[in-house]
Every structure is written in structure tokens, then in C-alpha cells.
Amino acid sequence: MALCEGLGGGSSLLWPRVLLFGDSITQFSFQEGGWGACLADRLVRKCDVLNRGFSGYNTRWAKIILPRLIRKGNILDNPVAVTIFFGANDSALKDENPKQHIPLDEYQANLKSMVQYLKSADVPENRVILITPPPLWEAAWEQQCLAQGCKLNRLNSVVGEYASACIDVAQDCGTDVLDLWALLQKDGQDFSCYLSDGLHLSPQGNELLFSHLWPLLEKKVASLPLLLPYWRDVAEARPELSLLGDGDH
Q1: Cα–Cα distance, 91 to 249 (Å, whole number)
Q2: Helices 35-42 and 203-221 sit at what angle, rounded to 10 degrees?
Q3: Cα separation of 147 and 144, whole Å?
Q4: Element housing 17 (H / E)
Q5: Which stretch of DSSP H or E encloses residue 180?
Q6: Is the pLDDT of residue 223 over 50?
Q7: Which carries the bigger pLDDT value, residue 16 or residue 248?
Q8: To the nearest whole number, what is the mean pLDDT of the chain?
Q9: Residues classed as catalytic
């Protein structure tokens, strides 16, 4: 007899999803100690945390691919929360890095467009969290640039303008926002310890981001039940009675 034959199958088990959408800082977030990995661990058996980070991408490219990641008309499969975390590449200096650079007004428009698309795909504003780019530690990043034979291609003051634009979009659209640029520079502190190479997050930076993102995300997933019963609660004689229900516990 087939493994599940005769058990009736039960109802389809829907597994909620949280979608992390961003550039390399999101792509790398599933590395050991990364903020995305910490979210996945915190939400295990409640929902899947999907890493949709694309190293080097900017909002112009992100706006194009978003409809391929979340399609309209599939409400049951829509994420319960989405983070949008771009700006580190958009804010590259045009003269030094024209391929990644996106003008400030277009960056702002692209973020709005993505929030509006999510709304049209039945992911309302209250499920969306925008994250500003982190500050740039110019001395360390310049060493990375020189090692690749180019000049310093970003400035922290310019990144700050993009962070402010991200905050404005969140306020205009009614989404939550995490101002990582300001958070890492709080009270004028030395923020170099939060960055591994001047741009990407170090273990300490990942930890700090997770600790401030989780309270925003927790509000959106607080009602999610633990999926499937705790093992001690499974009926010993007829486990299917415990395991083929709605899946909530």
C-alpha cells in the first residue's frame, strides 16, 4: 500500500510566507547569523521566510521583477509580510558607477510603484516594511573600490538622501519603515563595527537589524498559529486524527 493511501489526505496545508526583497544585503542575510536567517529561525513552523535578495540590483530592476515574484489573483499564496530593502546600489555615484546609479526622484518613484503593485496584488500597505540603506563607511569601502581598480563610488551623505527618500515613501504610502541609516549612526557613534566592508553588514550589523526589524514584523505575524501539533499532542493510536486537521495548533 502506498505510504499515504487510505488516510484521506486531509485538507491542503497552507504555509504562510514572509518575503524578503532586496539587494545583496538581503541576499547575504541567510548566511550564518544573518538577519534573514534569524527571522526564519524565529518563525519556524509558523511560516516560510523566503530570501529574494539580488546582489547588485537597484529599484529600476527590482520594479521589473517584482510581478514575477508575487502574482496577482493568487490571494491564498500571498505573503503575510514583505520587506523592501533597496538603496545601497541606487545611491552609487553616477559618474563612478552609472550602471547601478538611479536618480533620487526615480528611486522614490520606484519604491512607490512597488508598494502600489503589492497593493494591487492583495498585499496591503500594512503588510509592507521598507528598510533604508545602511550608512556607508567610506574609508573601508574606498579600499574595496581601489582593490578593484576604481575610485570611491559612494558617499555616506548621498546614501542619507536616499534613506530620507525611502522614509518619505513609507509615510506617503502608509507602510512601516526601519531607518537603518540613522539607527547605525545613533548619537554620532562609530558605526564601522556594523559593516563588514564599509557597505555590507557585519555580524553585529545583522544582529542590530534583526533586533529592530522583529518588533515591526512580529505585529504582522502575531496571529499565525504553530503549524501541526507538538509531538506529545499527537494521538498515539490514530495519529491521523491529529495530523490531518486544519494544521493549526
Answers
A1: 45
A2: 40
A3: 5
A4: strand 17-22
A5: helix 180-183
A6: yes
A7: 16
A8: 93
A9: 24, 197, 200
With cell 570611491, the residue in question is: 152
According to DSSP H, which parts of 16-135 are helical? 24-27, 35-42, 59-69, 104-120
pTM, 2 dp: 0.92
Give the C-alpha separation, 42 to 20, whole Å.
15
CA-nearest of 156, 131, 134, 133 to 204 is 134
CA atoms within 13 A on the CB side of 71: 5
Angle 88-66-197 from CA coordinates, rounded to 5°:
20
- Burial (Cβ within 10 Å: 0-12, 13-18, ≥19) of residue 164: middle
Q: What are phi and psi of 18, to 5 degrees?
A: -115, 130
Q: Residue 191 and residue 211: Cα distance in Å, rounded? A: 16
CA dihedral 56, 60, 65, 69 (to 10 degrees): 80
Least confident of 42-46, 148-152, 195-199, 230-234: 230-234
Does an H or E element contain 82, and which? strand 81-85
The grid coordinates of residue 146 equal: 581601489
- In the chain, pLDDT over 70 holds for what percent of residues? 93
According to DSSP, the β-strands at 81-85 and 128-131 are parallel
95 is written with which cell numbers?
A: 559618474
Give per-residue pLDDT as tens, 37-81: 999 999 999 999 999 999 999 999 999 999 999 998 876 678 999
Are 184 and 194 in contact by the 8 Å Cβ rule? The answer is: yes
